[in-house]
Amino acid sequence: MGIVSPGFQGRPRTQEPALPPGQYLTEDFPVLSAGPTPRVSLDTWEFVISAENGGEHRWSWQELMALPQETPMVDIHCVTRWSKLGTNWQGVSLDTLFADVDTGAHFALAHSYGGYTTNLPLDDLRGGRAWVVHTFDGAPLPAEHGGPARLLVPHLYFWKSAKWVRGLRLKTMDEPGFWETAGYHDYGDPWREQRYQGD
Prior knowledge:
- The protein is mainly beta.
- The protein has 3 helices and 11 strands.
């Protein structure tokens, strides 16, 4: 006598979301910072792209808000192993900000109010893969999460999405930033688990 009724397939399994190796899913938005949280006035805020030839492109807060806005919904992955899926942002694509920038550089060093820096290949900031964002879940981005504006580069570990971003310095040679100098990976691809130098 069988113990399984004909046609019984068992309890349906919940489809587990795909996460990069070594990550766990969280519904929270943990706050991790290496120093004090800068408080940046919108009256003095600016974003500057400095080209390797000395040319500069500047945007005030009002000028940033006047640019075409995008609303990316993306998964984010922190090197401390949490992942948060389907996060909602609003901001300006780096493609828009680079539209009039003449450069032959291959790298960028993002720099922030407060002194933080991180390095990225320029190709990872263009092609619809990176933004300067100022809104999270429909509300102004809180200072503890990088407000008034942060970089958003969701295909890399989240330390590459510099909080309190104030500009990009374009470079012909790669220059490690804050965490990279401390031993973290220069690129930081979560799907290849590039957490530290040598990974």
